Structure formats: structure tokens, C-alpha cells
Amino acid sequence: MLAANKWINDASPIRSVDTVEANVESVRLDHGRGIYLVSIENGSSVLIDDDHPHLIGSRTNIERVTRDNGFVFYRFVN
Questions:
Q1: How far are the Cα atoms of 3, 50, 70, 75 from residue 9, in angstroms, in the given order?
Q2: Sheet of 72-76: strands edge to edge?
Q3: What's the rounded Cα separation, in Å, for the pair 12 and 21?
Q4: Residues facing 26 on adjacent strands
Q5: CA–CA gap between residue 76 and residue 23 (Å, rounded)
Q6: CA gyration radius for the chain?
């Protein structure tokens, strides 16, 4: 079921990409990839999966990506 939802979301075109200021709060390493807890400027937090290292406590820009089907996810600006 989760794989089907991921395929549907990946197949939906990207509607918009907005840059957001954020703070890297913590990381959990999982098989060579980092799962980062990031706090956003509006006070909420999100998890971002990334294979590049990011310094804990640093300010960074992330992107809020919205797909045509309404699915929203966040990613680091590379």
C-alpha cells in the first residue's frame, strides 16, 4: 500500500517549489543516509531524508514542494 502511494505521488507533476528558512535540529543515521529533524521558520518541524551531511544547529534553506495532487514534501536545497 505504501509503495503504491509513493508511486502515485512520484507520478504527479510538481506544482510549486517554495524556499523556506530552517534550522537543522538533529539527525538519525539509517544505512548511510541521514533522517534530519528540521524546524521551520513558522515553528513546525519536518523530517527530511538526505544522503548529504548537514551540520546540526546550522541555519539552512529547504524547499517545500507541492505536487498537483496536493502532496507536500520538503527537501534540502542542493
A1: 10, 18, 9, 15
A2: 45-50, 33-40, 14-30, 59-67, 72-76
A3: 26
A4: 37
A5: 11
A6: 13
Q: Which three cell numbers stand for residue 16?
A: 510549486
Q: What pLDDT tens digit does each residue of the chain (78 aa) get?
A: 555 566 667 778 999 999 999 999 999 998 878 999 999 988 899 999 998 999 999 999 999 999 999 999 999 997
The distance of Cα 47 from the centroid of its chain, to the nearest Å, equals 6
Beta-carbon-side half-sphere exposure of residue 72 (alpha carbons within 13 Å):
8
C-alpha cell at 23: 534550522
Strand-pairing partners, residue 1, are none
Cβ contact 37:16 at 8 Å: no
Helix (H, G, I), strand (E, B) or coil at 33: strand
